[in-house]
Specification:
This protein is an alpha/beta fold. 36% of the residues lie in helices and 18% in strands. The strands form three sheets. It has a seven-stranded mixed sheet. It has a two-stranded antiparallel ribbon with strand order 4-5. Bound molecules: adenosine-5'-diphosphate and the ligand CC(C)(COP(=O)(O)O)[C@@H](O)C(=O)NCCC(=O)O. It holds the Pfam family PRK.
């Protein structure tokens, strides 16, 4: 008997699971998914992401039942609703986290009649909110002050306390939870802009470091005091987590391709932090992007992000064309 914590499934094995609980999408719903403006193709949606949304619905139902049982034990029957189900999406810069997160948001928001799961506690139209952790990056001026501009995306470049507090507040059922907003255009936190989450049924939290374990505070500097205190990490609030995985050479290529595309589009805006790369040759611009990959994003992947892969509930392993080739599902 295998004691490996993960069950490995080929794409074919995984997509065959869908047939047992078919999810019929109407033409309009398919059209809405296309309307996400993403590159993702519909075979991929059907074979990989529809079964995933069905598995997530099973987890949502089971989490609800467990909470109801706990409340009954505590003599609080009838108060089991209202706790959002929280999903974390982790992986490297440019591996496709935001594409997966937006797609899941769309699939999980579909009317319940499509979910194939009976009796789950969701309303007919579940409200699914998405937050990205870039809003919790320290502002550029603060990164500069701390000498962290070349560590952007590393765990220490975030206000981890604020992120954890944000998710804890949503999970606790606060009616309104407000967080900061990051702009890729200005490469900084946007002053005077916030995002507010209003008691969603499901919250998706997407970012490079969402599977980082909790920090130990105080203990390292004061071992004589008998060790420190462990803070909660954002991952402590997850009911389910996904790690989007691919070969490093493929991710680097996707990063450079995205940079090339942005150079022809968003960077054209004179307000863009990267506007300067539209006025030099493509070769020069790509040399800059390659350097950013090699000195920031790849070391962050190796040192901080990839080591958290084994904490995810499900790992999606992508091939060179973004198609999911195999999956590892946590079973122990
Ligand atoms: N399933 C997919 N099929 C094709 N291209 C994809 C897919 N997912 C992501 N991409 C492309 O890969 C790049 C990185 O994806 P993105 O979601 O922006 O990554 P991240 O949020 O991890 O930085 C983008 O150019 C995106 O269009
Ligand atoms: C904003 C990011 C840190 C990603 O943040 P996330 O939402 O994953 O927390 C990253 O996309 C980024 O800008 N990294 C800095 C290096 C670069 O320009 O690629």
């Amino acid at each position: 008997m295998s004691t490996k914590p993960y069950l490995d499934l080929s794409r074919a094995e995984w997509s065959a699971l869908r047939e047992r609980t078919p999810l019929p999408l109407t033409a309009e719903e398919v059209e809405n998914l296309r309307g996400l403006g993403d590159v993702i193709d519909l075979d991929e949606v059907r074979d990989v992401y529809v079964p995933l949304s069905q598995l997530l619905n099973l987890h949502v139902g089971a989490a609800h039942d467990l909470r109801a049982a706990l409340n009954a034990f505590l003599g609080k029957a009838g108060r089991s609703g209202g706790t959002p189900f929280v999903i974390g999406v982790a992986g490297s810069v440019a591996v496709g986290k935001s594409t997966v997160a937006r797609l899941l948001q769309a699939l999980l928001s579909l009317p319940r009649r499509l979910s194939g799961v009976g009796g789950a506690p969701m309303p007919e139209h579940p409200r699914v909110e998405l937050v990205t952790t870039d809003g919790f990056l320290l502002p550029k001026a603060e990164l500069e002050r701390r000498g962290l501009m070349s560590r952007k995306g590393f765990p220490e470049s975030y206000d981890r306390r604020a992120l954890t507090r944000f998710v804890a507040d949503v999970k606790a059922g606060k009616p309104e939870v407000t967080g900061p907003v990051y702009s890729h255009l200005i490469y900084d936190i946007v002053p005077d802009e916030t995002l507010t989450v209003h008691r969603p049924d499901i919250l998706i939290v997407e970012g490079l470091n969402v599977l980082q374990p909790a920090l130990l505070t105080g203990g390292a500097s004061r071992p004589e005091a008998g060790g420190g205190r462990t803070r909660m990490a954002v991952s402590d609030y997850f009911d389910f987590s996904l790690y989007v995985d691919a070969r490093t050479a493929d991710i680097e290529r996707w990063y450079l391709d995205r940079f090339r595309k942005l150079r022809a589009t968003a960077f054209q805006d004179p307000l863009s932090y990267f506007h300067k790369y539209t006025t030099v040759s493509e070769e020069e611009a790509l040399a800059y992007a390659r350097n950013t990959w090699r000195t920031i994003n790849e070391p962050n992947l190796r040192q901080n992000i990839a080591p958290t892969r084994g904490r995810a509930t499900l790992q999606l392993h992508k091939g060179p064309d973004h198609k999911v080739e195999r999956l590892s599902l946590r079973k122990l």
